[in-house]
Amino acid sequence: xxxxxxxxxxxxxxxxxxxxxxxxxxxxxxxxxxxxxxxxxxxxxxxxxxxxxxxxxxxxxxxxxxxxxxxxxxxxxxxxxxxxxxxxxxxxxxxxxxxxxxxxxxxxxxxxxxxxxxxxxxxxxxxxxxxxxxxxxxxxxxxxxxxxxxxxxxxxxxxxxxxxxxxxxxxxxxxxxxxxxxxxxxxxxxxxxxxxxxxxxxxxxxx
Length: 207
Description:
Elements: H1 11-36, E1 43-48, H2 51-60, H3 67-72, E2 78-84, H4 87-98, E3 103-110, E4 123-131, E5 142-152, H5 153-166, H6 174-206
Parallel strand pairs: 2-5
Antiparallel strand pairs: 1-2, 3-4, 4-5
Helix pairs in contact: 5-6
């Protein structure tokens, strides 16, 4: 017998919400390029967390593998990543997300202002999103959560490489590798600030 989906009957609902958010976010770039000649962000990726990944995370957190826990305890079944060119754009994107109809910011973790010891930088948001149909608790409109990570190109490049090398840190060079990764993260953050300054000077001349 096939295993019941961890998302119960809400898999299609999750996919529909993910698509809705994608379309609304992508429309910003079209509008920004048309009206301001500048993109809001560089690119957008999204995913629905796989069955195996969600079940593994629930086990790791000591939670029962139920639809309720998957949707309302983890809150990251839907994941979006928005990559910007400049640091200021991260917070502009955050404000635009908060202004979406039927969307509110439920949680925020700012790893740009509060950098992780590893050097990781990103803005993490949990969005509380209304859906037209009933949710697990019978509420109409229902509520479903989505996680959004917003970071610059430099932050995203570092995070991708750090993730790839995370599993290769065993051995005598582990401390050295961690220190070098942290140094690279700090160098990229300095570059982000310099690029932001240059962009601000250019925009000032355009006014």
